[in-house]
């Protein structure tokens, strides 16, 4: 028997496995559907584009056709490997605005305000600039920033100030608004995934067992309590039982899928796919939220974009340099600067985020534009459109139906439209005079609101941040309580991005790691005031 069975060795699961197994009296089994993180492109920061092209460690998800985006079906990359999406993402470390977490608390989630969660962000982090009021200096997760900014990144930062926005030296500190440098989850030129930072140091513990290539097929529920997990490995169905708890950490797609496969969810839906409803919980798979993005692509008049780094000879030189020094162009993912702005001055916090990309590409990096250029990615910080993740059958190998319902809200379209207008103003500043070429997309002829809206619906894509499908709360659609326990069932928690009641206004990896840190502390300190322990 095992005390805790964790399903999913991703951004949250690796954190949980480390923190729980740190107590030698606690036994932990960690199940992961993917394999070991041995692919060299995982660890090389610039290798994430190759991972995207190959799909080697990806679930291969597709959304249903999106009716508000001209019927397009969206590719949804998610990591299927130790480390999960932290092993394949762009290594962006941004936490979100304080009002995101205060909003969670105001929705009835006591203990999840910004002041409550900040200690867990700090506990996780080892910031290369050292511990301060907002950052940790000795946590497992290493965060760094580039020391020499690319000329185009410098132009972006200068142009933001010229356009009237603040220069922000740290978007993870007291204020998010403005243009500033990006922190990345990188350590000594290597991707700092949760598999590397949390799981690897714990693998030698005798009380931790990691089982890869293990696809969870259902949670075993007996007498209103989760007592184990059934999984398929090498064509065989096996069972691991849990004395204490089963913890789902599969993320916004896999966690609701597994609950539904286990008979937990909306009864009518479960019966429609041939599954007996064990526990009626209508919110499972609802409340899906994702950051939706578009971009402006502009030609650069000087041959200095990152396109030059992809020439065969330069790639070879960079790989040799990286092998010898862990430095050079491939030691960083290529995003150095960001921007956060308000589309309306009366807003409490920015509702538009820009990632400044120093190359032009399409189709998630699988299609490069053979012109020197740059493209700020523009995304809606607080999307109003919500969708669903619903299983189609009782077969665990069949992907669920993913419907993010992109741009159903006209407000999301408006924010992207305003984001394009603001971005054009920034790119029109003096700082870009030496680099500004033709606007490739949307193109100079796309000027009216109707034209921009049409471009948005044709070009919008995921920013890879699905959350919310097992949301925390007290309303009828909530799946877990503030202790992340599934409502109405004993011995079962969900601890991952799916518990977010509302989307955070940032890339979601940092927040997911925080959730896992806080969730682990809840488990280890059950019956005590765990919050005081990290205050």
From TrEMBL:
Q: Where along the chain is FAD bound? A: 81, 89-92
Identify which cofactors the protein needs according to its UniProt entry. FAD
* One Pfam family this sequence matches: GMC_oxred_N
A GO CC term assigned to this protein in UniProt:
membrane
Flavoprotein keyword on record: yes
The organism's place on the tree of life at top rank: Bacteria
Alphabetized InterPro entries for the sequence: FAD/NAD-bd_sf (IPR036188), GMC_OxRdtase (IPR012132), GMC_OxRdtase_N (IPR000172), GMC_OxRtase_C (IPR007867)
Q: Which UniProt keywords apply?
A: FAD, Flavoprotein, Oxidoreductase
EC no.? 1.1.99.1
Enzyme superclass (EC): oxidoreductase
Residue ranges annotated for the Glucose-methanol-choline oxidoreductase N-terminal domain, each copy included? 79-102, 251-265
PANTHER family hit by this protein: CHOLINE DEHYDROGENASE, MITOCHONDRIAL, GLUCOSE-METHANOL-CHOLINE GMC OXIDOREDUCTASE
**Which family does this protein fall into?**
Belongs to the GMC oxidoreductase family.
Q: Please report the name of this protein according to its UniProt entry.
A: Choline dehydrogenase
